[in-house]
């Protein structure tokens, strides 16, 4: 892993703090996507959320002291039998609108 580690640290060293944060947040969203898919496969619902008060999450979870900050939160749990939203139609872009195939 030394080669990969050196490449990653070399790239990060050239970025300012805001760019590092943006990069790290994107890495987090890769994990989030995998988490949501894996959870769905075992029958667990998830609810990805932004729009929360980041500073409060950092404080409550003691993230700042660890040099961390929240970028997204994702509750997970078993679906309630009376969840009226569960049976609503899903709203999704057509695959052709979000996936481009090149020969
Ligand atoms: C408090 C709250 C905040 C949310 N914030 C976001 C958000 O920032 N971005 C987003 O894409 N969805 C957000 N959602 C939407 C849900 O996580 C979820 O994607 C949405 O209910 C549609 O899911 P579905 O199409 O799989 O049923 C939020 C939902 C709640 C309840």
Task: Walk me through what this model shows.
The chain has about 100 residues and is mainly α. The protein has one domain (about 1-100): NADH Oxidase (3-Layer(aba) Sandwich). It is about 45% helix and about 5% strand. The protein has helices at about 1-15, 15-40, 55-60, 95-100; strands spanning about 45, 75. Flavin mononucleotide binds near residues 47 and 48. The site of flavin mononucleotide has 6 residues, from loops.
Helix/strand-derived class? mainly alpha
Whole-number count of domains: 1
**CATH hierarchy, class:** Alpha Beta
- What is the gyration radius calculated from CA atoms? 18 Å
Low-confidence stretches: none
From the 3D structure, determine the CATH topology.
Answer: NADH Oxidase
Shape: extended
Note the main sheet.
2 strands, antiparallel
Write the CATH architecture name.
Answer: 3-Layer(aba) Sandwich
Instruction: Note the gap between the termini.
Output: 33 Å
The number of strands is: 2
In helices, the fraction of residues equals 40-55%
Helical region count?
4
Residue share in β-strands: under 5%
| Secondary-structure element pattern, one letter each | HHEHEH
Average pLDDT number: 94
- Hetero compounds: flavin mononucleotide
């Amino acid at each position: 892993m030394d080669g990969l580690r050196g490449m990653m640290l070399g790239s990060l060293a050239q970025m300012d703090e805001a760019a590092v944060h943006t990069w790290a947040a994107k890495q987090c969203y890769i994990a989030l996507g995998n988490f949501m898919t894996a959870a769905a496969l075992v029958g667990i619902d998830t609810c990805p959320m932004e729009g929360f008060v980041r500073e409060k999450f950092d404080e409550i979870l003691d993230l700042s002291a660890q040099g961390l900050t929240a970028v997204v939160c994702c509750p997970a749990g078993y679906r309630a039998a009376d969840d009226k939203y569960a049976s609503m139609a899903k709203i999704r872009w057509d695959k052709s609108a979000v996936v481009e195939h090149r020969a």
